[in-house]
Amino acid sequence: VTLKECKKEEKADREFQKKFKFEGSINVLTQMMVDPAATEKKGGGKNLPLRRGEILDVIQFTNQEQILCRNSQRR
């Protein structure tokens, strides 16, 4: 990982924490894959755009219907 990539990841993490009012360090609990048969959805506001088969990092289980995740682009 180059210095430029490291700084970019740190910036993305800070933006994530600010957007979701997330305090403390970001720890990935597990990874999940979006159902390959699911319909793709555009993101908006605080919702992540979904792509079939995409691997997501699970940060926090918020309730039974929503999970706080980030994609490979750390968004």
Automatic annotation (TrEMBL):
Residues 16-73 form the Helically-extended SH3 domain. InterPro entries: FYB1/2-like (IPR043443), hSH3 (IPR029294), SH3-like_dom_sf (IPR036028). GO terms for biological process: integrin-mediated signaling pathway; protein localization to plasma membrane; T cell receptor signaling pathway. It holds the Pfam family hSH3. Transmembrane segments: none annotated. The keyword Phosphoprotein applies. One of its GO terms (cellular component) is plasma membrane. Keywords: Phosphoprotein. It comes from the Eukaryota. PANTHER family: PML-RARA-REGULATED ADAPTER MOLECULE 1 (PTHR16830:SF11), SH2 CONTAINING ADAPTOR PRAM-1 RELATED (PTHR16830). This is PRAM protein.
